[in-house]
Amino acid sequence: MVVKVYGPDYACPKRVIVCLIEKEIEFETVHVDGFKGEHKEPEYLKLQPFGLLPVIQDGDYILYESRAILRYYAEKYKNQGTDLYGKTIEERGVVEQWLEVEAHNFNPPVYNLVINILVYPLAGLPSDPKVIEESKEKLGKVLDIYEERLSKTKYLAGDFFSLADLSHLPFGHYLLNSMGIENLVRERKHVSAWWDDISNRPSWKKVLELYKFPM
Amino acid sequence: MVVKVYGPDYACPKRVIVCLIEKEIEFETVHVDGFKGEHKEPEYLKLQPFGLLPVIQDGDYILYESRAILRYYAEKYKNQGTDLYGKTIEERGVVEQWLEVEAHNFNPPVYNLVINILVYPLAGLPSDPKVIEESKEKLGKVLDIYEERLSKTKYLAGDFFSLADLSHLPFGHYLLNSMGIENLVRERKHVSAWWDDISNRPSWKKVLELYKFPM
């Protein structure tokens, strides 16, 4: 059964797609135009009642929340493609820890920066310089902890690439390429090397080749 | 090995403790006084570099982020105590989905309400009535979707109690008991019945008996 992924132009669906490529799972994508509000239309809300991207359809099975989808496929196809959960339950626990850190510590300031530096200007809305400064400061402190961690292990959860690293790719891409603040990463030697490593994986290059970011 | 849980008076560590009780895992707690800033002291930061609660120590194994700890123990002791992940990989995927919904849709508005209605007044800081109103409105829309879901299944992930329900307990407790806004739940028949069901589990009653909320 081919997995259908909705909204491939946006960041959170790309998190799912790069995982499907790593796991060698066949998929197809369904375009959803967020700027036209297609994710708030009744047909879409039947699949994802919160009106958020992505959602996947795998036969009769429907699942949303990008990081839940990552976990589902990493577990279901544990022995196919890249093992993204580590070898032991203890390694998997550490993968879960850093996946939560990505969601709760890394993503919120980067998201605020994306909204204020990229999205608002595009929509003709004013950016909030105070939010931008505070988010840069918060992110800097988070990346200091990443720097310390990545000075000891090659990847976040240990010496193996995992869901925890993979989950940083879409918003990391904005951070490094579109906002003029890549110094936040480049000033930190180990974070910078880690980013070059994970963003040069064939899976992520394939995602960027197949699906453009809308900005 | 007895699991050590840091910071049992606070909400996120309670999420871990109720899980340990459900899984029949022996634990002890270490008091951390957040009002004195003990979670920002160097000894604590060695365990949890972001200075957040909780962290657990299980022999040499140290893990933080409450929902990562839930997942670790639900997996490690799959066949001990309450099964919190469902029977199949597909059920587990839906547990993951609603655990993410709790983290990203339910928790943020409730957290803002707790901060503005309970914490700021206690700290002598001004609350923001606009944030309170916006958070109530956001939460109401989220609970409308819960109401729809819970009209079809007894619990969030299906007809079995899971990590997804359990994870709502600590902030749900604030919402229902300390803020004068329990109508948000009580006006929704199925959400209200669901709350009564999960909050009357012996595990959660035990948590409330053992560890007071600081407010």
What does this structure look like?
- 2 copies of one chain form a homodimer.
- Chain A is 57% helix and 7% strand.
- Chain A is of the alpha+beta class.
- Chain A folds into 2 domains: 3-81, Glutaredoxin (3-Layer(aba) Sandwich); 89-201, Up-down Bundle (Glutathione S-transferase Yfyf (Class Pi), Chain A, domain 2).
- In chain A, helix 4 (89-122) packs antiparallel against helix 5 (129-150), helix 4 (89-122) packs across helix 7 (169-177) and helix 5 packs across helix 9 (189-199).
- The A-B interface holds A 49-50, 61, 63-65, 67-69, 71-72, 75-76, 89-90, 92-94, 96-97, 99-101, 103-105, 142, 145, 148-149 and B 49-50, 61, 63-65, 67-69, 71-72, 75-76, 89-90, 92-94, 96-97, 99-101, 103-105, 142, 145, 148-149.
- Chains A, B: It is found in: Cytoplasm, Cytosol.
- Chains A, B: It comes from Trifolium subterraneum (Subterranean clover).
- Chains A, B: GO terms for molecular function: glutathione binding; glutathione transferase activity.
Average pLDDT for all residues of chain A: 96
| Biggest protein-protein contact in the assembly | A-B, 30 and 30 residues
List the quaternary state of the chains: homodimer
Q: Which spans of chain A of ≥5 residues are poorly predicted at pLDDT below 50?
A: none
Number of domains of chain A: 2
SS element count, helices of chain A? 10
Largest sheet of chain A: 4 strands, mixed
> Under the CATH scheme, which architecture of the largest domain in chain A would be assigned?
Up-down Bundle
N-to-C CA distance of chain A: 32 Å
CATH level 1 name of the largest domain in chain A:
Mainly Alpha
Rg over CA atoms of chain A? 17 Å
Q: What best-fitting shape of chain A do the alpha-carbon axes yield?
A: globular
CATH fold-level topology of the largest domain in chain A = Glutathione S-transferase Yfyf (Class Pi), Chain A, domain 2
Helix/strand/pairing category of chain A: alpha+beta
Number of strands of chain A: 4
User: Percentage of helical residues of chain A?
Assistant: 55-70%
Identify the strand order in the major beta sheet of chain A: 2-1-3-4
User: Per DSSP, what share of the residues of chain A sits in E-state strands of 2 or more residues?
Assistant: 5-15%
User: What series of H and E elements makes up the topology of chain A?
Assistant: EHEHEEHHHHHHHH
